[in-house]
Amino acid sequence: MKKVVNTPKAPAAIGPYSQAILAGNTLYISGQVPIDPATGKIVEGGITEQTEQVMKNIKAILDEAGFSFQDVVKSTCLLASMDYFKPMNEVYAKYYASDCPARAAFAVQALPLGALVEIETIAVK
Questions:
Q1: 45: number of Cβ within 10 Å
Q2: Helical axes 47-65 vs 85-95, angle rounded to 10°
Q3: Containing domain of residue 22, as a range?
Q4: Alpha-carbon separation of residue 80 from 77, 95, 113, 119 (angstroms)
Q5: What domain count does the chain have?
Q6: DSSP per residue over 19-87, as a string?
Q7: What is the pTM of this model?
């Protein structure tokens, strides 16, 4: 069974995709960029502020689906530059203090809307 998960507390999809899909007991959250759902715009500031907004967006979707950060098993972090890895990691670590999920981090040529970071997430109950 597949269920679309959507919340106004996270930014609306900017293309033909869903914020998240719940398939059985697994939640697949689409890559979140640092859009403030209240304004529909990328948050001001640098990688720290952008990563914080991405994590807030992920939390909103997890909450909507009845999941938490403790249910996350895998993250994929996309960065506009590997120079952003350390500050992104410092924010990320606040959300995953123990029993951290598996993770990959990549530098990419560009991200949607000029974002510095995008994170996709998989959670399992």
A1: 13
A2: 30
A3: 2-124
A4: 10, 21, 12, 12
A5: 1
A6: SEEEETTEEEEEEEPSEETTTTEEPSSSHHHHHHHHHHHHHHHHHHHT--GGGEEEEEEEES-GGGHHH
A7: 0.96
Instruction: Check if the beta carbon of residue 42 is closer than 8 Å to that of residue 34.
Output: yes
CATH code of the domain containing 26: 3.30.1330.40
The per-residue pLDDT string of the chain (125 residues; one tens digit each, 9 = 90 and over) reads 899 999 999 999 888 999 999 999 999 999 999 999 999 999 999 999 999 999 999 999 999 999 999 999 999 999 999 999 999 999 999 999 899 999 999 999 999 999 999 999 999 99
